[in-house]
Specification:
four-stranded mixed beta sheet, 2 domains, globular
Length: 274
């Protein structure tokens, strides 16, 4: 069992802003190169491989939360053990007023047995699923994958047996606040779902710019009197569709089964959580 006393969560909340600062520092001349050199190994390759599951995806022509629920539920049911972190470090660091700070990450796999019960609840499958449902009702975006630094944060030996599921809000999520500043190699570790596409209906769009402001990667912009979406920059979080007041932005997954298979295969290749 790891040793992480209850005050560890408060310490994390205090030092967490350094993650946003360091991400921006990678763009600085000279100093940025040193920061990137020291941090990139943790945020590239097998040490970071994550995917957002858009809550506004369309499958079969109707908007729903089917896909994130389907994927996360499957992961939870397959896992050998699971914990719920008592507080979300990102929301705690920003004193979030939009969503519950107590809605922390779900961690899965054999490695979670090592996590100190003072910072996390060791839960049943049903309790983890109830946590998922509560997060979806809040409009939080599930993000899942391999996050190597979580082994240190939660005191788990790195045996490749720890899978992270975060429930992210645009206002506080570390990646969503710093993704566009990361080096290209780190940005490439954020994988959109296979076959995901975002379209804008020009007849419904009023060019209000809500989607432009919300996109954490700068993948949407106003240009020539309309909205232009850059698929190469997009990470498929679905927030653009969620905030559009005219429902002009649509997120669609062409083949849900293929998208789920690709994601699950990628996770299985990196983490043993059963």
């Amino acid at each position: 069992m790891s040793v992480r006393p209850a005050w560890w969560l408060a310490v994390l909340a205090r030092i967490w802003p350094l993650t946003w600062i360091s991400a921006r520092m990678t763009r600085w001349p000279i100093v940025g190169r040193a920061v990137a050199w020291g941090s990139l190994p943790l945020f590239t390759g097998k040490n970071l491989n994550i995917t957002y599951l858009p809550v506004n995806e369309e499958a079969g022509g109707s908007a729903s939360t089917l896909l994130p629920r389907q994927v996360v539920e499957a992961l939870i049911r397959r896992s050998s053990h699971r914990v719920l972190i008592n507080r979300c470090t990102c929301r705690d660091a920003k004193s979030c007023r939009r969503h519950p700070v107590t809605m922390g990450c779900t961690l899965l796999g054999e490695g979670t047995k090592e996590i100190d019960p003072r910072i996390a609840r060791h839960v049943t499958v049903e309790e983890a699923l109830a946590h998922l449902e509560a997060a979806l009702r809040e409009g939080l975006i599930p993000m899942t994958g391999r996050v190597r630094i979580d082994n240190f944060i939660w005191g788990v030996k790195d045996r490749g047996k720890l899978l992270t599921i975060c429930y992210c809000c645009r206002c506080c999520c570390t990646i969503m606040n710093s993704g566009r500043y990361l080096p290209a190699e780190a940005q490439a570790a954020i994988h959109p779902l296979a076959g995901l596409a975002i379209t804008v209906d020009p007849d419904l769009c009023v060019r209000c710019g809500a989607c432009v402001e919300e996109c954490f990667m700068g993948a949407i912009r106003l240009e020539g009197g309309g909205i232009v979406h850059d698929a190469a920059l997009c990470k498929g979080c679905g927030r653009c569709a969620a905030v559009c007041p005219q429902a002009a932005v649509r997120v669609a997954v062409a083949d849900v089964e293929r998208a789920v298979a690709e994601l699950m295969g990628r996770i299985d290749s990196l983490v043993r959580y059963e």
